[in-house]
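2024-03-11 09:14:02 INFO worker-7 job=invfold-0412 stage=load source=structure_tokens
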């Protein structure tokens, strides 16, 4: 019987039929299964509400079994001070069972609030005086670039995380390694797909697991939790949580919108204004760290148009195609070339699908069913660097992006889109 007030655990199916137990019981069973089947277990810990619940449950299981639990913290420098305080609190609370890997290395990150600096590098050497905060002080902090044999300067976050898991498995003689990840399927469609995909490799066909690399699997014990379940857990157990969520609540942010991310990303820029309100001292350092932050925060706060869902208007006397050309001409050359490549691929794709020569309508519905130059303009106006509005996906890594640019430079010459877009 489900605990009063707790959601009933849901399997991965279109009907979402309950499993007959509450989500807390289900999560504990999944974590027990991971500890039983995997000789090496670690959890990814961001200091957020979801990963905090997962660490509490995993630490309890490790303690009951007399096992160690690895904790990966990828510190992206631009963090709330409340988050850093919470990290220290939790690491001290479970110090008896934790092996801490607090990574503070230069990683490449997206900056969605500036076309002049579309990327930035956290913990960049030589810019120590501009860092948002000094390196953290903890025995588990890793700031030496030589510590990991796989690390290279400026790696993408998305590259580093799976590479760490493979490295950790190798440090234990290649033993089967399970990474506990605190994502929930109701947070976004992308997270739902991460868990629900039926074509992915799983561990013993457990839907809440995903194969990452040889000897490494991700496990999502909290996949069927709702936001209310997360806060119910903290309320009932009295476990510590990140107090920045209290400040967000007072600032008018709902429990479903409150989340922690590096502040400059495409989706994360919506929360930039919160730094100004919640932690003014941190905000001053965030503004000085990366270009475009103050404008991005003001734009998000005043218009709310921080996810690209904006109504764009065409200047008098122009077509959308001419407008796109003008926008490209005003950009810095590297950024303009990046977007020209996206547009060229977009036009070439439709050239083989009913639009000979890549001649697309100037205007049309703002959805993915019909191409138009208006959609292209929206990508440019919203600084949609990865072209998500045109159905592009981010590159898998910085090295993959370099290879992609070289390949597309050749392709654009072949297609005849070299200089016009």
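2024-03-11 09:14:09 INFO worker-7 stage=emit residues=421
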């Amino acid at each position: 019987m489900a605990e009063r007030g707790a959601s009933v655990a849901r399997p991965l199916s279109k009907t979402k039929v309950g499993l007959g137990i509450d989500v807390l019981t289900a999560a504990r069973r999944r974590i027990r299964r991971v500890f039983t089947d995997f000789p090496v277990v670690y959890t990814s810990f961001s200091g957020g509400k979801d990963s905090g619940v997962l660490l509490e449950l995993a630490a309890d299981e490790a303690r009951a079994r007399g096992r160690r639990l690895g904790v990966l913290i990828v510190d992206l420098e631009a963090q709330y001070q409340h988050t850093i305080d919470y990290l220290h609190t939790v690491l001290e609370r479970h110090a008896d069972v934790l092996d801490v890997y607090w990574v503070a290395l230069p990683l490449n990150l997206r900056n969605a609030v500036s076309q002049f600096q579309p990327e930035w590098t956290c913990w960049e050497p030589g810019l120590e005086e501009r860092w948002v905060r000094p390196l953290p002080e903890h025995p588990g902090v890793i700031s030496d670039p030589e510590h990991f044999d796989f690390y290279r300067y400026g790696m993408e976050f998305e590259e580093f995380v799976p590479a760490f898991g493979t490295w950790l498995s190798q440090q234990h003689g290649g033993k089967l390694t399970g990474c506990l990840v605190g994502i929930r399927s109701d947070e976004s469609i992308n997270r739902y797909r991460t868990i629900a995909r039926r074509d992915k490799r799983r561990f013993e066909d457990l839907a809440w697991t995903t194969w990452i690399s040889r000897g490494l699997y991700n496990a999502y014990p909290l996949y069927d939790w709702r936001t209310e379940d997360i806060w119910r857990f903290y309320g009932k157990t009295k476990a510590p949580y990140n107090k920045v969520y209290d400040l967000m609540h007072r600032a008018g942010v709902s429990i479903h919108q409150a989340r922690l991310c590096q502040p400059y990303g495409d989706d994360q820029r919506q929360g930039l204004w919160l730094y100004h309100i919640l932690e003014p001292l941190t905000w001053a350092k965030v503004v000085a760290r990366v270009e475009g932050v103050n404008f991005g925060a003001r734009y998000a706060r005043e218009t709310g148009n921080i996810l690209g869902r904006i109504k764009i208007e065409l200047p008098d006397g122009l077509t959308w195609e001419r407008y796109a050309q003008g926008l490209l001409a005003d950009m810095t050359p590297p950024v303009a070339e990046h977007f020209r490549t996206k547009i060229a691929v977009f036009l070439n794709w439709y050239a083989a699908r009913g639009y000979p020569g890549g001649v697309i309508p100037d205007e049309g519905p703002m959805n993915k069913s019909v191409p138009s130059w208006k959609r292209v303009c929206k990508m440019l106006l919203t600084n949609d660097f990865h072209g998500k509005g045109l159905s592009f996906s981010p590159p898998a890594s910085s090295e993959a992006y370099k290879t992609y640019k070289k390949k597309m430079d050749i392709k654009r010459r072949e297609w005849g889109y070299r200089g016009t877009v």
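2024-03-11 09:14:09 INFO worker-7 stage=report msg="Residues 320-415 form one domain."
2024-03-11 09:14:10 INFO worker-7 job finished
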